[in-house]
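Holo prediction. Input below; ligand is pyridoxal-5'-phosphate.
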Amino acid sequence: MRNVPTIPLFSAAAANRDIDLAGAMQRVLASNSFILGPEVAQFESEFASYVGTGHCVSVANGTDALELALRTLGVGPGSRVACVANAGFYGSTAIGLVGATPLYVDVDDLSLTMSPQALAQALAERPAAVIVTHLYGQLADVERIAPLCRAAGVPWIEDCAQAHGARRAGRLAGSFADVGCFSFYPTKNLGAVGDGGALVTSNGELAGHVRALRQYGWSKKYEVARQGGRNSRLDELQAAVLREKLRHLDRQNAQRRDLAGRYNQAFAGLPVRLPASVGEDFVAHLYVVRTARREALRAHLLECGVATDVHYPIADHRQPAWHGAQAAQPLPVTQDACDSVLTLPCFPGMADEQAGQVIESFQSFFAQPGTPC
Ligand SMILES: *Cc1c(COP(=O)(O)O)cnc(C)c1O
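Structure of the complex:
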């Protein structure tokens, strides 16, 4: 092991370095308003206009956003929801929470997002809804998916937890489907200093329904007008932080994308598969390569002081707690991805020399078998 500090996969210290979070938090402390106050209202309005939807309803986390989206679309026990199986089980968790069952759809071999062809087949089985995940920050093939869902009369949800700010032809992730769901977990492209989430939609009725469900099902104080309510609120401290960070989102996404572009250039020609796009439809939440020699490459990079991870090693239908495993259709691309994906450090505020060290370490693995770091 070289005597250098390991480069982390993500650094909150680096990502938040030039952003005045303390000021935002001081403002909330001085206001003494901590729940559903002015910061939350302002954030919702600012985020809705950023995404280009009429409405944003903030909630406690991204999984709640997915669950509440399904619930408001009328998905319940006995229903099936089409989704991918390579995106960390978050969609499957939400589907389970409403008593429905996932109908797993394979992913496209280039983008690792939902295959429109496979979705077309799944739609023939009449799912109650579809969840499309913009994995690693890569916008899925929304141009082909939207008309498929519309023609089948099936509502769909975008899981944008890894894709804040990804766009195509000027339209942003979250504005294509009936509902867009976001997580503001600290490592996400728009990350709080704790948990947070939101739904965006252009459908006012749907937004009103979610707004009631996130607070006990209330239509007004102490009047429970909706079933399925709970407490799922973003707090004022997180909202104030997110408002501050939203102003830096496009700049930070550009930084992430530049890093991904630099890696793609440096790794071209090596026997690995690289992210398909480094354009605006990719916000490089995670920089993920595919290689048949994952374990050896991981060990080499670790020795060189480069942290790596695998997003994600176990497909949803192979999870030990997933009882419907036998029923799942074969998902060859999903399975291949689980066996070959490897994530490299890529985060805003990452130093040039750090990126250089990642590149050198990566290249040295392929230069000469057994080359030490
Ligand atoms: C992080 C994430 C979620 C879950 O968000 P939480 O806020 O942790 O509940 C959902 N979907 C995807 C794709 C994610 O990356």
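The chain has a mean pLDDT of 95. That is the main takeaway for now.
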